[in-house]
## 1
Amino acid sequence: MNFNIYKKTKTKLELPPIQVNSKLEDPKLYIPSEGLENAVNVALALGQPLLITGEPGTGKTRLADHIAWAFGLGDAIIFNAQTTSTAKDLFYKYDALGHFQYSQTSKELLTPEMVKKKFIKYQGLGEAIDRKKRCVVLIDEIDKAPRDLPNDILAALEKLEFTVPEVSDHPITADKSQKPIIIMTSNSEKNLPDAFLRRVIYYHIPFPDDKMLLEILKAKTEGLEDVELNAAIAHFEHIRKGRKTKLKKNPATAELLYWVLLLQKLKIDCSKLKDLASLSEEEKKNLAISYSVLAKNKEDLDTLKKMI
């Protein structure tokens, strides 16, 4: 594939078709550590939510998709916690403005079922309860939510019911035997309530060691030998841990994966990363370009470029 897709020109450019790497998001290729497997088994055995922490990019979010795939439960339901999230948001969203505008412009009298169809959207626990079968619910970045929300989640899980007063006063319930599998992630931006922490299973995903990183790269990439992947991992670890490359924000596993894929597109021989002096001038130039995947601010990008 030609890397130089976009460039300065006075003529129209041809945009190539998107080349999708299906392996990147394939849930069956997710590789949990033994510790993470144990944590999942504890949560499943006790029927309690699992709270996962770890560096961004270490696979916290992907875990839910993998569990859903492993047990044949369909797609995981994702609820992205926000600073404004409320207990009601865990179950549904009501488009009050849309409903009002409709009532002002239409003479049609809506039945409760029509209101539900047009202006109510189940989400998170509401969608899980409405499915009436076991499923996986991911509550992502719960530490962003208001402090009361984590406890509201646990209370909701005990009842497994909710009401949509805009439609009906009758509660929507789920059989306790269909209790959803709850995975919650946190970036540890703020402390979570003690009462909440006492009622969840906790696990911190450590940054993968070199052996695990090699296993991940071999599963997600094609056409690279172990010697090339190991050289890329060694260079990546030098960036994360080197005394001369103390970055403000270290790259994580996700960045490593995309970086290696870019090195392939740039036609850089990864085995040469053991000795940057062995790179040609063109390869050095392309390596500097590739660092935009690993660095997340100007200072870090400048630091990495100085290595070459």
## 2
Amino acid sequence: MEYFSEKLNRFAQSPPKYKKMSIKRPNEPTLAIREWGNPLGREILFIHGFSEGQLSFFKQTYSELAEKFRMVTLDLRGHGESGKPPDAASYIGRHWADDLKATMDATGLKKPVLVGWSLGGFVIAFYLSTYGDSQIGGINLIGSPVVFDPNLSPPNTGPVASLMQSDDLETNIQGSLAFVHACVAKPLPPEELHFMLALTMMSPAPVRKAVLSGMELSASKPEKINTIFQNTSVPILITWGSADSFHPVARANYMKRKIKGSKLSLYEEIGHSPFWEDPVRFNKELSDFVDGIQ
């Protein structure tokens, strides 16, 4: 597989075809969306993690998957090129659900497979809680502990998250850099590190505070989220890195036991970002998962 920098150079000379659009609604932040790949292919909607963006899925949208599938990516509110309201009330569950619904409606997605990384898995949970699963084909959860075992310790994100919320820019940058390092098990090549750090810095400190506060309010009853996924009828693939520094493998094993019919794909010596750290395997497994859905 080509190195990341080679892909950047090649696509700079001959960019892949994608459609860029914005969703504007009264009293709601604008959502930035891109459509990629085969317009006649089966559909996949990618939802990124905290303080990241739709370009986190660079290694999927700029891959052979584009020849086969119609892929949609979005910048969640508070992230990337989307609007960034500064108040916690803008980041409660119903807003995340409505944003996902608006994205599906605006792009005309019919029964897409939802791919949710970390925070993205919770966005899917809020969507299911509000709209149910009748309009989706399947779910791929990546490092997202949406079915929570109360006997396990909380996620190991506190120190880094605190630095990322600092109003002091130097502290903020150092926290963001530590966050990017913690998302992978092995050091990233410089060009990938720079790319991910730049994407991470698109979310300002006040917005990060608001997102985490809103999520805390929305997830105050984890047993409700647990029930959502346990009662979902669509196929679910759980993707997890064995060296995830935020969420230990015990969380993945717990989810596999609790979500009836789910499948667990464990990536040895991979961290919180299997789709980035091992894109060849991830893309193949995602392709097989989508193809296997009736």
## 3
Amino acid sequence: MTELTLADLVLNRTMSPAMAATFATAAAERRSTLAVAIPRGAGKSTVTQATLAYAPAGTGIHQLSEEHGSHLGIPAAADGGYLLMSEISQAPMLDYLWGDPVRRVFASLDAGDFALATALHASGLEEAIEVICGQNGVPSEHASHLELVFYLRSLGDDWRNPERRTVDSLYELDRVEDGRPHARLLHRWIEDDDRFEGVERPEFIGHVSGAYPSHLELFRALSP
């Protein structure tokens, strides 16, 4: 199956052009991201992979798994790449991590040599951080390495065969303090009107690369 791009996800109305520009800019700046959803198949991996395509050329993408042993696939020599933790979950899959391995992954971000892309099942931002800090014991200062958090919804009566998927909300995470997130809502989907809305401007995403305007122009050109 062909992987969907951010452009595809704008065209099928999973996200707005402004959301896509935010995702692309975050990857260009190597921001750590967290995808959140309740049902399986909501698009966590699809959006994450489409986002990582905008990382700088040559950026390493390191798939973490317990099959690699105690180091989980985290390179010994820092290369500025992304650590890809498929899911924070107790499901019996080698690339789904829980507990001590999750704590080790977040601790490895302290030196600033890697960024993280991961996902989990939760009902929103606060519950997602509770899964990370409360259930997995990740210290708040380590969880604070996450910078972009997005919540996905699967629309329709049957989650196994959704009529559509949408990015319901997109946050810029300032920090985690005492296990609670401090974040600003950048974009959201208004269900009653089936439209996307910008809420707040980011305070740091886009300020390093300055790539947001060009990305926004690119994705806006796709809109009807």
## 4
Amino acid sequence: MGVFDQYDPIQYNIRYAATLHVFDPHGGIPQDPKIIEGWLRSKFSDSDELVQEMVMRTLEELGKPLDDEHLEDAIESISAKRVNGFYRAPDGQLAIRGRHIKAGIKEAANILWAKDRWGPTNKGTRSFFAEHVFIPEDFIPLGVTEPAGIDQRQVNTFRGTSFNYEEYVLDVYPEFTVITDHEFTDEQWGRLWVVFQRNGLGASRSQGFGTFEVIKWDRLN
């Protein structure tokens, strides 16, 4: 507890409880290869079709048949590559960070009101939202302890062709709080969330992943 915590709800006296339904967010945090290797083995043993398809595709790339020896080669090949995923909350659940929600709010606000000025200091939109809108939660659990799968996508750059590997989850419902000291209108909040929903949350948003809908937006005070 901080010595001035009693003043926090006085200074930031406008608070909302929010719940999102995020359809297919992708993780963007580099993961430990050993963890990925164990996860792949367990999923392959469970006859997970998506994992089996990924392993089979890797065997084709390696030019090897499917048998126990080459299965190990394929799993090690995948896990040795850079796989991006999610943070983990202290209770073991996959999680996003509160700062990612705040970044999405700032981005949506800047899309809507890039040239507007705010408050008595006449701040620009991005600076004003950075200084006046906060997400108090650090880790926001997603309600699951392991990903639904690992997405493998081909990426073409001027250096050639490579593959991106990203963990993803399906239909998760993160809950968090939004606090501010500025009285935004209902229309301003509504337009901001509509833009944020379309842009999405998490990695690979430019590919259409991580779109969501706000299913709860309740003022707390």
